[in-house]
Amino acid sequence: MVLQFTDKGIYCPAGDFYIDPWQPVERAVITHAHSDHARYGSKHYLCQHDSVYLLQLRLGQDISVQGVAFGEVVRYNGVSISLHPAGHIIGSAQVRVQQGNEVWVFSGDYKVENDGISGQFEPVPCNTFITECTFGLPIYNWQPQAVIFSNIRQWVQDNQAAGKNSVILGYSLGKAQRLLYHLRDVTEQIWAHGAIYIPHQLLREKGWDLPEIHRITPETPTAAYKNNLIIGPPSAADTSWMRRFNPYALGVCSGWMQVRGNMRRRNADAGFALSDHADWTGLLQAVRATGAEKVYTTHGFSSAFARYLTENGIPAQEVKTEYGDTDEELNIPETTPNEQ
What we know:
This protein is of the alpha/beta class and 340 residues long. It is built from 8 helices and 19 strands.
């Protein structure tokens, strides 16, 4: 096997490196900067160059990290490694590993619809494909992005007519940038929690086409964000940070909002099934486009998805990993004492 599944992560014995390890290792190839895929403690990191500064934000400026362009080939002990667009978040990549004539691809996390900022997912032909299955059930089929953002815009306008602030919760790395990119002109100003503001400003400094936003501090007068859009991380729900916005309507952006009961459980006024992961159709599209002869399924509905693939002529097997879909926050303080 070109890649092996170990207690530290996905390992390439010939190249002596790990992909997205969950324990410290000598050499780690990283698909993207979410905390379940990029963890502290490894001696050296390799990632797509737009992930470099996001890794440094999360793990510290002193880490040893090498950034490479999409498609650029790096060789470890004769094993070829290249990174290819995953379309999940800014800097996200799939890892292509070739040993001799055998090619394996680890997808990391991905989505096939181009969100306008994270890049277009690129199918990579391979013998073996390792795919996430976060939303690997047929009930998860996303509406086109344009429809979802049209619904969000209408919701914000309805809140304004009712004299309410519009508060949307979304992951600080990935979802927040996508929301801000597409909703830049929905209100006169956009305000944000510190956990959103910090990576946003970093990405603007690096040249990303993101709108100006304003950070909410204890000194921010309530009149400043009245009838405007406010974006915060999921962890801000049911905190004192939220209560300052009364009267407000709460919207949650997550693929889990596809299931009606989840909106009620989040105490949300509106749920928008906007996900940075592929839906059922996208997963099938990606798998088939690789032409893989064998598929390994990880995190999410991996057992169900593997069974479906096998029953439809694509040998597949579930693999247990420590990746997940609930830990996509930057490992930086989401609230400071002054933001409670």
